[in-house]
User: Fold these one by one.
Assistant:
Number 1:
Amino acid sequence: MPIIVNLDVMLARRKMRSKELAARIGLTEQNVSLLKSGKVKGIRFETLERICTVLQCQPGDILEYEGEHAPARLDEPAA
């Protein structure tokens, strides 16, 4: 899938467990686990907003596009 979910990375950076995030944003631990693994087909903007508020980050810190036509990252050398 070309959309990569980096929620586990942000949790690690904030030294927060999934259980705490789930409690603070009003989701079950299982739903947070599904989000972390990328096994969801979508996410509500309201949920994304709550995650970003709690983790003090931007949506782009959590979601990344890695498709065929994705723009080159600044830290990668040009092909």
Number 2:
Amino acid sequence: MPGDRITLGAAAIPEPERDWLAAVERLPVESVWQGGHVLPPGATGEAVTRLALMSAWTERVRVGSAVLVLPLYQPVVVAKQLADLDSRSGGRLTVGVGAGGEFRHEFDAVGVPVGERGPRTDEAMEILRKLWSGGPATHRGRFFAFEDVELHPVRPPGAAGPAGRKGGPPLVVSGRKAPAMRRAARLGDGWMPYLMSPGAYARSVQTVQEEARTIGRDLAGFEWAMYLYCSIRRDGDRARDDVATFLGSAYGDKPAAMLDRIAPAGTPEEVAERFQAYIDAGVRHLIISPAAHDDTLEVVRLAAEEVLPRLSLPAEVR
């Protein structure tokens, strides 16, 4: 995504729905996102399945995972699944990846030691790149090995030319800690943290940039995104109650002052000021995750129609 403009994405909360996605595609929203665990504590979907639904039920927007817990997956299998989805969607896929670890039982159940999740994520990202590069690929790593294999994405019916994008879909790294930031700088096409204040985001940008300089990497074209829980209502008190109730059940009880730093809530005017702080910290693609149990489309609509027009790039990059 270009770094000289501000764009908006939206998370399909709680589950992707055809009518909700159709309504969002009529708004000035450029992407839709969903993730999912393999063994979540409740009846919620899995990341690849959700990507497939969103790809099938949209026509215009970019479709992304926020996030795919990559170490839970056999990388050759998921490389094929994602390449096929990218090809069939017309190159609209973005793969947000994370190392996970909050649900240890998932790792135990699939036979992956939770302590290996970081290096497994790194190696899996390398494998995805190799298999998406086109032509035969060989890999000999700590966890996986194959020789002279070639991945062939499916071609959409009636399409001409090669199937899929050479190099595959972008890999955007999520997380909140320094190892994830370094992973983004070394292996990612972007950085997409969550539950961060604007100040913490600005510090994370510095960490990513410093790591990139250390390894001699040019970050031109790198995507600076933020997955941002929020609620926007005409009634600001209702929005604040949304966030307190939603994040309290999802992430445990958090003080109101902490929620205010990491999950903007209020009227469009109030939230625009909070969003602008993230833009000033370096965010260029804001992914709105409605922290609400109902009327999530209203949150996205107000963000797109009344908050986004109020945002502006810092003077030094205009």
